[in-house]
Amino acid sequence: MGLRSRLSLDRSELRFYLETHGCSMNRSDSQIMESLLRRAGWIKVDEPEKADVLILNTCNVKTPTEQRMLHRARILSRYGPLVVAGCMAKSQPELLRPYSKVLVAPRSIDSIVEAAFLALKGEKGEFLGWKKLDKASYEREHSDLIGIVPIAEGCLGSCTYCITKLARGGLTSFPRESIITRVRDFLAMGVVEIWLTAEDTGVYGWDIGTDLSNLLEGVVSLEGDFRVRVGMMTPNSALRIADRLLDSFKSPKIYKFFHLPVQSGSNRILRFMGRDYTVEEFIYLVNRIRERYEDSTISTDIIVGFPGETEDDFHQTLRLLEEVQPDVVNLSRFGPRPKTKAASLLQLPVSVIKRRSKEAMELIEEIKEKRNERFLGRDLVVLASEVTPKGTQGRTPSYKPVALGKVEPGYFYEVIIEGFRSNYLLGRVVRRLGKAGLSLNVQVEGCSSR
């Protein structure tokens, strides 16, 4: 459709295509932008060739992701006017300007309607400011049975390798009342699983005189039998609130899932990374969690090949993995991100990084299978919350994924674990227990979660 034809359309006929990449925070941002556009009369379409304006919500946490974003921007710009939003629009706008005249930073998504009309008219617009938006307050639709609720934006860290800080800035916690209202609204819509998300959930509230534990107490006090997944928190922030945090996780509504990115098993490398904790503190934190919640899932992140990492540093990381035995490990090969301190350091040879990555991954796969094997024969309560091409997937009280076959989502099931893979468990459904969310009418305490 030509530009003149677009401008002659009634606003109610304008169509947008929205493509999202990256983390759950980005997914939430896209839901907010979609809601704002719909309320302004725009219609969402699922195919780029049918859109009057295209929107690309970007991630650029890693170099391969950055390259994929540039590829998508180049492809989508061929279909029509393109708006580029997200982290890359803020931290690397110079790379995107050849494909888009209109850029929208994560803290400016409230300007998406104006941005779309500028793109439609072929005009330039850059919304790259540092607003303090209360993103929890924006009404939006949920994704299937999962509701993503942002609780804060930005962080208090100074990691030398991270480009996300350049895109999302320092900590802005959203009001407790806004978050609880959003959770309540999602539950009223039929959501059964809530994801509380932020760059670092552990520092929630430090800028407004509260903390994560206080927020969780408010969330779990809401009516209904639903589940809450708490997103990533840095080890140092979790350590600071450890006592109250572990107490707040006692509610059966909260998955016993702790995402604590350690990044390296070498204290020397952690200092170079700008991570404000030690390996010993991380181990202490994990031990405390497992003492309190035996079946908890520990998820962590590891970067191999950081500048200056010696063979000894790398083997310290392997020893840490062997000692801690995390259930989930997100392994990354270091790649310098522009405008960060680590990008100016002497880089290791790619061949060394690849070799270390392969060795680490082999160990990680062994550990994951060992951690999952202990669930064989267990009788668990599982919430079926996701539908995949292969069937329904559920989650145990510790957020372990369980393949359930073709069962109806949105219900609790009694399940016997009969098999496992490195990334999930295989369950046989014994019986359906009751509907999750606001309309649960069957008690599910009878099945063991240990």
Core attributes:
pyruvate-formate lyase- activating enzyme; 450 residues; OB fold (Dihydrolipoamide Acetyltransferase, E2P); 5-stranded mixed beta barrel; 6-stranded parallel β-sheet; single chain; Rossmann fold; disordered C terminus; alpha/beta
Number of domains: 3
- Give the C-level CATH assignment of the largest domain: Alpha Beta
Counted by DSSP, the helix tally is: 15
Main sheet characteristics:
6 strands, parallel
Describe the strand arrangement of the main beta sheet, using strand numbers. Answer: 2-1-3-4-5-6
Characterise the protein shown here.
With 450 residues, the protein is α/β, with parallel strands linked by helices. The chain has three domains: 3-127, Rossmann fold (3-Layer(aba) Sandwich), CATH 3.40.50; 135-373, tm_1862 like domain (pyruvate-formate lyase- activating enzyme, Alpha-Beta Horseshoe), CATH 3.80.30.20; 379-435, OB fold (Dihydrolipoamide Acetyltransferase, E2P), CATH 2.40.50. Helices cover 34% and strands 22% of the residues. The chain contains 15 helices and 19 strands. The chain has helices at residues 3-8, 24-39, 63-76, 87-91, 93-96, 112-120, 164-168, 176-188, 212-220, 235-240, 242-248, 267-273, 279-292, 311-324, 350-373, and strands at 15-20, 43-44, 53-58, 82-86, 102-104, 125-127, 146-150, 152-153, 172-173, 193-197, 227-230, 257-259, 297-304, 328-333, 379-388, 391-395, 401-405, 411-420, 425-435. It has a six-stranded parallel sheet, with helices on both faces. Strands 15-16-17-19-18 form a five-stranded mixed barrel. Helix 14 (311-324) runs parallel beside helix 15 (350-373). The longest helix is centred in the last third of the chain and has 24 residues, at 350-373. The protein is globular.
